[in-house]
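pasting for the record
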Amino acid sequence: MAHVTGIYRHPLKSHGREALQHVSLSKGETMPWDRCWAVAHEASTADGSTWVSCINFSRGSKAPSLMAINAKLDETTQTLTLSHPERKNFIFQPDDRHQLSEFLAWVKPLMPKDRAQSARIIRIPNRGSTDTEYPSISINSHASLRALSDRMGMPVSPLRWRGNIWIDDLVPWTEQSWLGQKFSIGSVVLEGVEPIVRCLATTANPRTGKRDADTLGALKDGWNHQNFGLYARVIESGEISIEDTLELL
């Protein structure tokens, strides 16, 4: 039976992931603390008042080195620890404007010089800055990942895909058929909305931040699309833990 193998949040959009053992999800909301903050670049129109598209933010598709960041959030103090193989660990509170200059100095060596540079951190009220206009949870399949790995002749890390929930024991790509389908994971009920069309961020190695795998070409050549994973909405609140099962409703 399909079951949960991984749960991840990304407190600062495109700047690190954090593995969890369990999570509480609320109807119509993003995962708590997932993409809670986002780094707007100097050409961005984002002001934190409303959702805007990912083109307004520093992200792995344009700055592959960001893909090697790991994160750990202390929810009580809202203190974030970022680590990267080429940088010393950095601890700060993203809401504290007085700490912004230190963060920008820490991340600057990871940003390409020919791209708009990181400028400020925003936080949208009551939701995370997901890549969708609606609050979404991303669902990803290890079976599909193995199929892609076989196609590429190399192991492809799940961390390339920046997903929220990872499921195993499915038929490869079956999650792509869940559009409009309700399914339960643990005590949460979700509904599939749309496939996730992938970008260049997935070509970067999450250990090194270097582009080293043509994930997009392999998806296109093998299956005639660049989709991996599924965006879903939470339609009934509840909890999800590692090893919880998935059931179509």
